[in-house]
Specification:
The complex is a heterodimer of chains A (about 280) and B (about 325). Chain A is an alpha/beta fold and about 280 residues long. Chain A folds into two domains: about 35 residues, no CATH class; about 220 residues, 2-enoyl-CoA Hydratase, Chain A, domain 1 (Alpha-Beta Complex), CATH 3.90.226.10. Chain A is built from nine helices and ten strands. Chain A is globular and about 50 Å long. By secondary structure, chain B is of the alpha/beta class. Chain B has two domains: about 50 residues; about 250 residues, 2-enoyl-CoA Hydratase, Chain A, domain 1 (Alpha-Beta Complex), CATH 3.90.226.10. Chain B is about 50% helix and about 15% strand. In chain B, strands 1, 2, 3, 4, 5, 6, 7 and 8 form an eight-stranded mixed sheet that branches. In chain B, helix 1 packs antiparallel against helix 2, helix 6 runs parallel beside helix 8 and helix 10 packs across helix 11. The longest helix of chain B is centred in the first third of the chain and has 20 residues. The radius of gyration of chain B is 21 Å and the shape is globular. The termini of chain B are far apart. The chains are: A alpha/beta (about 280), B alpha/beta (about 325). Chains A and B meet through strand 4, helix 4, helix 5, helix 6 and helix 7 of A and helix 7, helix 8, helix 9, helix 10 and helix 11 of B.
């Protein structure tokens, strides 16, 4: 669809969240990349197109005109509702995740603009306990969907998650119902919801808000599925075919609308929104 | 019953002794009435005691008990006039879920039930009640049909999980479940869910976004199986790790009632549902009838608002 593409806009140069070494070896092709260049290209290898993981703040800068202009509900914290006793107590693991810096939960939500259009926005952080959805993630997603409803704005969510946060037991499972119900209300009010799936998006997040976009966009090579590949291999007792559960596989099977390389994400989202509400 | 779990062994011993006594009595014409009465009283006592002192992992085993009544066992006792309907009109029929019109006390409604098999042949057909995407889509088709005719929906939950396989992924297992969650939040007729055995994670949730969720006393409902949780967190596949996981997950009916996830626990007969299917069905029927009568009083708007609010408040967090 090259003839259809808008002129590329240069990404705003800002400090990104990749570690500060000068060179980086590409996990895709082994090429040694100048880090500055990688950052300029939104964490995508210029040679092979491999998408490195970038953080939630990077996505906000990449997709929104002035990053996140307002952040919502940043003070919400899990209360360890089950007093979960595991090899490492949940409360301890949670504190460690918060202290590690970056986001304070596995999702960042707020408001911003996409080429001048006001939007509500959510982006998950795989670095925070595997991007798992517990009560706080579910609550923040439901609230940002309700904001979209109140403000009559489109909603964009960038997902990356290992699934439900099992240390919150069945309460984490119920967040799937909570977030999907909130999107149901948006759906009834005919408000657009664009879901962007990044590597990896699996389990309870995929089986709820991530797969409910009016339009679902996947980043190239992203692993997207309900069950993790290891669980499937154990269940069926055979190796999985190459490319199984990758973005391109989902596209082929009709499960996502488009696979879009990261530098093209914003122009694509913007054009979609223009069609849907412009 | 024929098979007994470890914690049921003393029950098994008493049952065996009663059997021997009866045999002895008929062979030799002895009067064992008094002794028999004592043993039967002891049996009842043991069954109640056993159930009361169960660990969460033992409850998991009851929920999966070989002789526990499955959906169709309950349905033939609770409903009349059942007409099974098949297929998602897109790919195939999924026998892991049984759907159709039925009557509860004469009243027409749609039943959607996950069905386990009781032997290898049945399980091959039912896939151990692990649904594929087409099963969730069949269920949604039936819910829409119920909505069209203004009939309530009853779902019966008993599954270890949604099936994790190649075909399931190719055909969008995640999308099928997600779609049901969204659509069920908007269906304009009462939805009542009954968890009768295993409520296995997304596989169970995909049929149980409901106005009321009732649960048999020894059924379980969990985000992950104790086995899965033990292997991920404890990185062990031992009975000890599984027991720890089962306790940590808070997956029993009383736990779920406390957490606000379900609305009612239905008491099981002494010894558990597997000891008396008829009594279990009677208790289930009473609960379904009463809850449905209650939901009938609500307008569509109240129903949908109530359903939204029910899930909206689930979870626990700090801060505003």
């Amino acid at each position: 669809m090259a003839w259809f593409r808008k002129e590329k806009k240069k990404l705003v140069k800002q400090k990104r969240e990749l570690p500060a070494d000068v060179w980086k070896k590409c996990d895709g092709c082994g090429e040694i990349i100048y880090r500055e260049k990688l950052n300029e290209n939104a964490g995508v290898c210029g040679k092979c197109g491999y998408h490195f993981r970038i953080g939630p703040a990077d996505y906000a800068r990449l997709l929104l005109d002035d990053a996140l202009e307002k952040e919502y509900d940043s003070e919400l914290r899990s209360v360890d509702p089950l007093e979960f006793v595991g090899p490492t107590p949940y409360a301890e693991r949670y504190e460690r995740a918060i202290k590690k810096g970056g986001t304070k939960e596995a999702v960042l939500t707020g408001a911003g603009h996409v080429e001048g259009m006001p939007v509500q926005f959510g982006v998950m952080d795989f670095g925070f306990i595997g991007g798992s959805m517990g009560s706080v993630v579910g609550e923040k997603i439901a609230r940002v969907a309700e904001r979209a409803l109140d403000e009559k704005n489109p909603l964009i969510i960038v997902s990356a998650s290992g699934g439900a946060r099992m240390m919150e037991g069945v309460l984490s499972l119920m967040q799937m119902a909570k977030t999907s119900s909130a999107l149901g209300r948006m759906h009834r009010s005919r408000l657009p919801y664009i879901s962007i799936l990044t590597h990896p998006t699996t389990g309870g997040v995929t089986a709820s808000f991530a797969m409910l976009g009016d339009v679902i966009i996947a980043e190239p090579g992203a692993l997207i599925g309900f069950a993790g590949p290891r669980v499937i291999e154990q269940t069926i007792g055979q190796e999985l075919p190459d490319g199984f559960q990758r973005a391109e596989f989902l596209l082929e099977h009709g499960m996502v609308d488009i696979v879009v390389a990261r530098p093209e994400l914003k122009p694509t989202v913007s054009r979609l929104l223009q069609h849907m509400v412009g | 019953m024929a098979s007994h779990q470890d914690f049921e062994r003393s029950i098994g011993d008493v049952v065996a002794r009663i059997g021997q006594l009866k045999e002895l009595a008929s062979e030799r014409g002895l009067d064992v009435e008094a002794e028999l009465k004592k043993l039967e009283a002891r049996l009842e006592e043991l069954r109640t005691e056993t159930l009361e002192s169960l660990t969460p992992m033992e409850r998991v085993k009851i929920a999966r008990h070989q002789q526990r009544p499955h959906s169709l066992d309950m349905m033939e006792r609770v409903f009349t006039d059942f007409v099974e309907l098949h297929g998602d009109r897109a790919f195939r029929d999924d026998p892991a879920v049984v759907c159709g019109w039925a009557r509860l006390d004469g009243r027409s409604l749609m039943v959607i039930a996950q069905q386990k098999g009781r032997n290898t042949k049945e399980n091959l057909k039912r896939n151990f009640a692990m649904m594929h995407p087409e099963g969730y889509r069949k269920a949604l088709r039936m819910m829409r049909m119920a909505e069209k005719y203004g009939r309530p929906v009853i779902t019966i939950i008993d599954t270890p999980a949604a099936y994790p396989g190649i075909g399931a992924e190719e055909r969008g297992q995640a999308e099928a479940i997600a779609r049901n969650l969204l659509e069920m939040s908007l269906i304009e007729v009462p939805i009542l869910a009954a968890v009768i055995g295993e409520g296995g994670s997304g596989g169970a949730l995909g049929l149980s976004v409901a106005d009321r969720i009732v649960m048999l006393e020894y059924a379980i409902y969990s985000v992950i199986s104790p086995e899965g949780c033990a292997s991920i967190l404890w990185k062990e596949n031992t009975e000890e790790a599984r027991s720890k996981a089962a306790s940590a997950l808070k997956l029993t009916a009383p736990d779920l009632l406390f957490l606000g996830v379900i609305d009612e626990v239905i008491g099981e007969p002494p010894g558990g549902a597997h000891e008396d299917w008829d009594a279990t069905a009677t208790a289930l029927k009473e609960s379904l009838t009463r809850n449905l009568a209650d939901l009938d009083k609500r307008s569509v708007a109240d129903l949908l608002d109530g359903r939204y609010a029910k899930y909206r408040k689930m979870g626990a967090w700090d801060g505003d």
